[in-house]
Design brief:
The protein contains eight helices and eight strands. By secondary structure, it is α/β, with parallel strands linked by helices. Strands 2-3-1-4-8 form a five-stranded parallel beta sheet. A three-stranded antiparallel beta sheet has the order 6-5-7, with no helix packed on it. The chain is globular and about 45 Å long. The termini are close together. The model has no long low-confidence stretch (mean pLDDT 93). The structure holds zinc ion (ZN). The site of zinc ion (ZN) has 8 residues, from loops.
């Protein structure tokens, strides 16, 4: 069973995705990570991506889907995929679903649900590690990263205007996209602390992933 993860920024989607993927031995598909990996690759697709990035162009939906297709073709038999941050828009969802159906995949969508006020509060108060980019919530009071010892800083794009723009994009583009998956949708309450959210995610997913 593949999972398509949705969540407003600040919902803890990335962190939760990692723990769910680990729990069920899934591979994570994350567009940014795949782009970075492929652009170092000598394959025709790798070279194409490298030239798009070097020209400073945005990667089109078609190319994103070529990347998904490539990922699915290289997937080890019997491995499930967790899609993190894709699809963002309806057009991407339709293309992604085509690929999944072509490959005979079973999939569900998972929404980590938080209120906009919660997202705003978390995003304006969080800090990130300068070195490893780990994210720390406001209640983490030390000035250095637990993992690598790096300095914690406020991201320059975590200013109220930029945050509002990102949350608006989620409401205007991603919320209608999630509607496409309404019959396959599991909703997890993202309001509690992340370890509680992780626990309820596993409770919700266990019957599906093990059944
Ligand atoms: Zn760090």
């Amino acid at each position: 069973m593949d999972l398509i993860f949705f969540g407003m920024q600040g919902a803890g989607k990335g962190t939760l995705g990692k723990s769910v993927a680990k729990q069920y031995g899934m591979q994570i598909f994350e567009t940014g990570g795949e782009l970075r990996k492929l652009s170092k690759d000598q394959s025709p697709l790798g070279q194409k991506i490298k030239s798009i990035i070097e020209a400073g162009h945005l990667v089109s939906n078609e190319v994103v889907m070529e990347i998904v297709e490539n990922f699915m073709n290289n997937l080890q038999e019997g491995t499930s995929v967790l899609f993190d941050g894709i699809p963002r828009k309806i057009e991407q969802a339709n293309l992604l679903n085509e690929i999944l159906e072509k490959h005979g995949r079973n999939y569900k969508a998972v929404l980590i649900d938080i209120k906009k006020e919660t997202a705003l509060k978390r995003l304006t108060t969080r800090r990130i590690c300068e070195k490893c980019k780990a994210v720390y919530p406001a209640d983490y009071t030390k000035d250095s990263c637990e993992g690598c010892g790096g300095t914690l800083v406020t991201r320059s794009d975590d200013n109220p205007e930029a945050i509002a723009a990102r949350l608006d994009a989620f409401e205007n583009e991603t919320v209608p996209t999630i509607q496409i998956y309404r019959e396959k949708l599991l909703t997890i309450d993202g309001e509690p602390q992340i370890d509680k959210v992780a626990k309820s995610a596993i409770e919700t997913l266990d019957p599906i992933m093990k059944g």
